[in-house]
Amino acid sequence: MFWIKEASIYTAATAGSGTRLLPTERERKFMSDKQFDVLIRNGLVFDGTGRAPRREDIAIANGNIAERGADLNGSSARTEIDAGGKWVLPGMLDIHTHLDLEVEVNPGLEEVVRHGTTTVVVGNCSLGAAFGAQRRNGDNPIVDCFARVENIPKDVLERCADRMTWTHTADYLAHFASQPLGPNVAPLIPHSMLRIEVMGVDDAVHRQPDRSELERMQGLLTEAMQQGYPGFSTDGLPFHYLANDPHKDRRVPTQYASMAEMKSLLNIVREHDRVWQATPDSHDRLKTLRWFLLTSGRLYGKPLRTSALTAIDPVADRNAWKLFLKLARLFNSRLLNGKFHFQVLSAPFRIWGDGVTMPAFEEILSIIGTTTQNDNQKTQKSFHILSARASVDFWVPSGFLS
Ligand SMILES: [Zn+2]
Q1: In whole angstroms, what is the distance from residue 189 CA to residue 124 CA?
Q2: CA 58 to centroid of ligand 1, rounded, Å
Q3: CA of 123 to the centre of ligand 1 (A)
Q4: How far, in Å, from the CA of 64 to the mean position of ligand 1?
Q5: What pLDDT, on the 0 to 100 scale, is given for residue 22?
Q6: How far apart are the CA of 274 and the centre of ligand 1, in A?
Q7: What is the pLDDT of residues 194-232, one digit of tens each?
């Protein structure tokens, strides 16, 4: 597969929303000298509309596709690219990444753009950098929250946090303007970090916010929506634990939020017509159902755009995907009037490890739900469970989007 960066302005999103693909007559006249900035010749063009691919040229002027067609005769451009034998694709959107920290040390994100992704969403699963390093009163949330959830060494996380000069969501957005970014970056407001911002780490994983704290959270979230953040993220996965003492037995702060807190914050997202990104609590299906009913326009006045990540294990539960499809249909039915979509893994998800030094082994005890660290029998059992799980490919059937 070949991807040409200059074509990235022609994204899947714009193609899907009916954006015109060709210039108007007036624009055509203006460009009668057929001078373009970039001319991509002879590529096999997949234009994102679902049409069969066509071999054609694409001309770009002022950052827009100015003309396209088979053999643009007489045209010239400052840069001409021979895409013969290659595919030319719209830039892809990666809606679920955890590149929040990597983008601070390596803004080009070469491994992302070389695969054709031109926009990445960060701030997923309630974790992110929108409030900066948040190192106050002995807290170190970037290390605490990311180390175990994202399997990143603590010393690397420390160095990432050192680079965070901002303390506010507006400054976080602004700092991207001075970064030599590879792809576009769209950050969500992360719920765990919002809770920590208002309550501190210890309180955020032990109690509910009082009225003034909840109002402060609502205020910060409202401000962020007004600043242009595309959404808000929460998390329910039962193996997402903090990494620093004395909180190693506590999960990330979002998981301690009451239904009332969730409702009040998500109402702000709903009012601004932004997106709620969530992961389900796979151990508590009833709670998951109650949470995802928050997408309903019938129950809450206006549909809440909801994007839910889950990975299906087809070996342990062969019929899970059918249940998920049914759920999505129910949420989006006329009865509930929701805007609910599952996120799809586009390829089998494999975990590779370098022997027993793999950080995932730290999670053995949490996987089997025991806290008896010196119990040899349990530890042996958990190793067995982990090795069995590591051999499973997570897989989602194509066409799974609701
Ligand atoms: Zn995630």
Answers
A1: 8
A2: 36
A3: 8
A4: 33
A5: 57
A6: 18
A7: 999 999 999 999 999 999 999 999 999 999 999 999 999
Distance (Å) from CA 309 to ligand 1 centroid:
8
Q: What is the 3-state secondary structure (H, E, C) of the chain?
A: CCCCHHHHHCCHHHHHCCCCCCCCHHHHHHCCCCEEEEEEEEEEECCCCCCCCEEEEEEEECCEEEEEECCCCCCEEEEEEECCCCEECCCEEECCCCCCCHHHHCCCCHHHHCCCEEEEEECHHHCCCCCCCCCCCCCCHHHHHHHHHCCCCHHHHHHHHHCCCCCCHHHHHHHHHHCCCCCEEEECEEHHHHHHHHHCHHHHCCCCCCHHHHHHHHHHHHHHHHHCCCEEECCCCCCCECCCCCCCCCECHHHHCCHHHHHHHHHHHHHCCCEEEECCCCCCHHHHHHHHHHHCHHHHCCCCEEEEECCCCCCCCCCHHHHHHHHHHHHCCCCCCCEEEEECCCCCECCCCCHHHCHHHHHHHHHHCCCCCCCHHHHHHHHHHHHHHHCCCECCCCCCCC
Ligand 1 centroid to residue 166 C-alpha, Å:
23
Average pLDDT over residues 80-84: 93
| Residue range 362-400, pLDDT digits in tens | 666 555 554 444 444 544 444 444 443 443 333 333 333
Domains, the chain, ordered by start:
5-90 (2.30.40.10), 93-279 (3.20.20.140)
- Tell me what the pLDDT averaged over the chain comes to: 82
Q: To the nearest whole percent, how much of the chain has pLDDT over 90?
A: 60
Distance 399 CA to ligand 1 centre (A): 21
Residue reference for tokens 């999670």: 363
Task: Assign 324 a pLDDT band (cuts: 50, 70, 90).
Answer: confident
Cβ(364)–Cβ(239) below 8 Å = no
User: What's the 187 CA to ligand 1 centre distance in angstroms?
Assistant: 13
Q: Which two tokens stand for residue 83?
A: 């895409």
Q: How many Cβ atoms from other residues are within 10 Å of residue 26's Cβ?
A: 8
Cα(245) to centroid(ligand 1), Å: 23
